[in-house]
Structures are given as C-alpha cells and as structure tokens.
Design brief:
Layout: H1 4-24, H2 32-35, H3 38-66, H4 70-86, H5 89-99, E1 111-116, E2 119-122, H6 128-150, H7 156-177, H8 193-206, H9 208-211, E3 227-228, H10 233-243, H11 260-272, E4 287-288
Antiparallel strand pairs: 1-2, 3-4
Helix pairs in contact: 1-3, 8-11, 10-11
C-alpha cells in the first residue's frame, strides 16, 4: 500500500468491518467485542484480507504497466502525474480558504512598514476557522450564563445528587440480580415474606435442633430475647451464621453449606423472632444488644 488512496481504502474497509461486527452481533446491553473477544480475531483476519487485496491490486497494476510499450508508459505516467496533482484538489482549496493566508509570491501586499534588523512583519488575517470557533465560544458562554444563572439550570450539587440517586438505583438493581454477592458488611434485613419463609425452612432444617422450634433455645442460646453472645443486629447475626460461634464450643460455620442469600434469609428470620414468646425460653446469655445494625466483628 504505497499510495494514499490504497491506505485510505484499507482503513475505510477496516472501520466498516468493525461497525458491521459491532452492529450485527447480538450482545444484549454489553459491548460485542467485550462479550465475545474472538471478534477481535475475526476483525484481524478481515483486515489481513483487505491488506492482501490491496497488495494484489498493486501487483496487478505493475504487471499491466510492464505490458505497455515505452510511449504508452510515458503517456500513462504523465496522466498519473496530472491526476496526483489534482488529487484532493477540493480539500486543498478548502484548507487554503480556511487559512486565509497569502502565498509567498503575494506577500508584498501584506508587508507592514516597520522593519527591525532586516526583518519585516506580515499583516496576515486570523484564520477563518479560528474566528468562527471564537464566535461559537462567545455564543456558548452567553447561553451557559442564561441557562444556569438566569433560568435556574441544575447546579453541580443538583447534578451530583441526581447521579447519586441513579447510582443507588443501579446498585439496588445489581444487588437484586446478584443476591449471592452479599456479605456481613452489606447484608440488610429482608422483609419480603418469601425471604422470611425461605429463612424459616432453613431454620427448621438446620437450626431448630439447637435453638428450639420457636427460637427459645436449647443447646444454643435463646434467640427471642435482647441478649446476644456475639452481637445482635442483622450484620452480626449473618456473620455468626457464616463464620460460626465461639471457637471450641460455639456453632459451626455454615458458609460452606449455605449460599450468601440463604444466610441472609435465615438471619432475617432469626431477627424476626425478637420479642416473641417461646414455650420454654432459656435464660439470657451474653450482653444486651443496643447497637442497631453495627457490625462488631
């Protein structure tokens, strides 16, 4: 690819191939090339084919040129030189107009009178593109002032609060879709009856033997009073179920048996037993908990 045209064609076809893959591959809300990394290989192979095609066309061009007699070759070269001279003529004209500068042969027209050490200054105009861009900034500044200072547009604080609200919604949605990412520091009490019912099933299956059917306690402590050995509140209860009780004499860890979501459900059910009246309550153990949902571990 020795010519500008062949290089531009290769770049254009590569971009076209990229866009076709990006728009035609179904990747839901994800970026196609991120979800399917092999697409980079497909694009790379496509680019190699484009480069090979350009090289093949160049070789064919040289072969056809060699079949011409000397006069035809000279005529062809003259036409090619003229074509290259006029190549991108429209863009060159527009570029020159955007600069609004004089060519070197016309500089006498814009020479200023003063001279210093043989150096004279040219009175060039500012490039039109620069002036138009400057005008745009003035218009934008006026609109900005009117919108934010007069018409009461949102302030930085308003935009921050809006972004934070959207972030909270996104986090809530993410947690809803990925419930098993919960841990002791992020767990919250689950009020949904379905979660409490699931927690009760786990309790009846795994906890009732030590804490009694109604949470009154047996081998394990009473779960209905305000006293907790390792701290109350949803976060500490979750941590105790997950990591186990006191070493050597407490409850075994359940993190290998239950998923994080299940631990959150049974912890919420245990917390829902607070204030109930068991049939044969065990005497309080530990300290009265007044720390809310504070995690002490």
């Amino acid at each position: 690819m020795k010519t500008t045209a062949s290089l531009l064609r290769a770049i254009g076809f590569s971009i076209l191939g990229f866009l076709i893959l990006l728009l035609t591959v179904d990747s839901a809300e994800q970026w196609a090339f991120g979800k399917y990394p092999f697409l980079w290989i497909v694009l790379g192979v496509f680019i190699l084919f484009v480069v090979a095609a350009e090289m093949l066309l160049a070789a064919l061009h040289r072969m056809l040129f060699e079949t011409l007699d000397p006069e035809q070759q000279k005529s062809y070269q003259a036409k090619e030189a003229e074509r290259k001279k006029n190549q991108f003529a429209w863009f060159k004209q527009k570029y020159a107009a955007m600069l609004d500068s004089k060519d070197i042969l016309s500089e006498e027209e814009i020479l200023l009178d003063h001279e210093y050490d043989g150096i004279r200054e040219l009175d060039n105009n500012l490039p039109p593109w620069w002036k138009y861009l400057f005008y745009v900034t003035i218009i934008f500044a006026g609109w900005y002032l009117l919108y934010y200072q007069v018409l009461g547009g949102p302030s930085q604080v308003d935009e921050y609060e809006k972004e934070m609200a959207l972030a909270e919604i996104a986090i809530a949605k993410y947690r809803e879709e990925n419930k098993d990412l919960v841990d002791a520091s992020t767990v919250e009490f689950l009020e949904d009856p379905a979660d409490l019912s699931a927690g009760k099933e786990i309790y009846d299956r795994s906890c009732m033997a030590c804490h009694a059917m109604d949470g009154g306690g047996g081998i394990g402590p009473n779960l209905t009073d305000e006293y907790w050995i390792l701290g109350g509140g949803i976060k500490n209860i979750y941590h105790t179920i997950s990591e186990g009780g006191r070493a050597g004499k407490g409850m075994v860890p359940w993190k290998d048996e239950l998923k994080p979501t299940q631990i959150a459900q049974v912890a919420s059910y245990v917390l829902s037993l607070q204030g109930t009246t068991p049939q044969d309550p065990k005497d309080p153990q530990g300290d009265k908990w007044e720390g809310g949902d504070e995690l002490i571990h």
